[in-house]
Amino acid sequence: MKRRPFLQKITLFSTAVAAIPLDSLSQTIKEEPKKLRFIVASDGHFGQPNTDFTGTHTQLMKSINAEDQVDFVVFNGDLIHDDPAFMPQVKLFYDTLKSPYFVTRGNHERLADGEWSKIWGYPENHAFQAKDGSGVILLNCSNEAGEYLGGDVAYLESNLEQFRGLSHVFVFIHISQNDWTRNGVVCDELLETISQFENIKAVFHGHDHDVDGIMINRGKPYLWDGHFGGSWGNPFHTYRVVEILENGKTLTYLKTVKEGTILNGHTL
């Protein structure tokens, strides 16, 4: 499928985010102790014909394992490309990571009801607390037919209420819940719910392979990380790192998979 070009980077600045000069960012990464450090990678599309899906997965696992501190990884949707038979195979690659990992469901995970939990050990909507006490919420946004869906607002709100006393909460959902990208779906109720909780530090999306920036909605930052597989999108593969420093400051930066080059950085 040919896709028309779209924005490779979308960033709208407000008080919610601030860019960090790369020299300052490099120094902070090297010197500042971290309470929590996690990685987000999206759209591996394991099994897509005419792509080097084993090579791209091998490279990403190698790059992540070379990182000094990774408390967990989230693979934010489109883990495979349509055929459910690829799911156990991609899991073998993820299992080579030294760190814990979690997955969200995208529109290319064409699994029947109940199959997700059998493979991954938790349902499509899942929430947990990280080692530092931060709340993490993983939301489903599709089904066996591959439809683009809004997230489960009731599930989200219920867990946000449970996490209300936490200092940091992070939400992951593969498909953007707004029409600011070519492949988003509009779910204003979800966006409004997110805006009501001050401790949500960021929402993470995949799906749009040609988007790797930040957008702001109602004071909340929504972040993309490009892609590390598939047949279209940015000409470079990337993943996103998020760090909570000991002083409570939260920062994020985008890295290339193969070279480990930091492309940009922001405070949240």
Q: Give the terminus-to-terminus CA distance.
A: 35 Å
Number of DSSP-assigned strands: 13
The value of Rg in angstroms is 17 Å
Strand content: 25-35%
Describe the 3D structure.
There is one protein chain. The protein is 21% helix and 26% strand. The chain contains six helices and 13 strands. It has helices at 22-31, 53-65, 87-94, 115-120, 153-162, 188-195, and strands spanning 18-19, 34-41, 72-76, 101-104, 126-129, 135-139, 169-173, 200-205, 214-217, 220-224, 238-245, 250-256, 262-267. The termini are far apart. 43% of the residues are buried. Mean pLDDT is 94; it is low at 1-14.
Short synopsis of the structure:
The protein has one domain: Purple Acid Phosphatase, chain A, domain 2 (4-Layer Sandwich), CATH 3.60.21.10.
Topology of helices and strands:
Layout: E1 18-19, H1 22-31, E2 34-41, H2 53-65, E3 72-76, H3 87-94, E4 101-104, H4 115-120, E5 126-129, E6 135-139, H5 153-162, E7 169-173, H6 188-195, E8 200-205, E9 214-217, E10 220-224, E11 238-245, E12 250-256, E13 262-267
Parallel strand pairs: 2-3, 3-4, 6-7, 7-8, 8-10
Antiparallel strand pairs: 1-13, 2-11, 5-6, 9-10, 11-12, 12-13
Keywords:
268 residues, alpha/beta, Purple Acid Phosphatase, chain A, domain 2, seven-stranded mixed beta sheet, six-stranded mixed beta sheet, 6 helices, 26% strand, globular
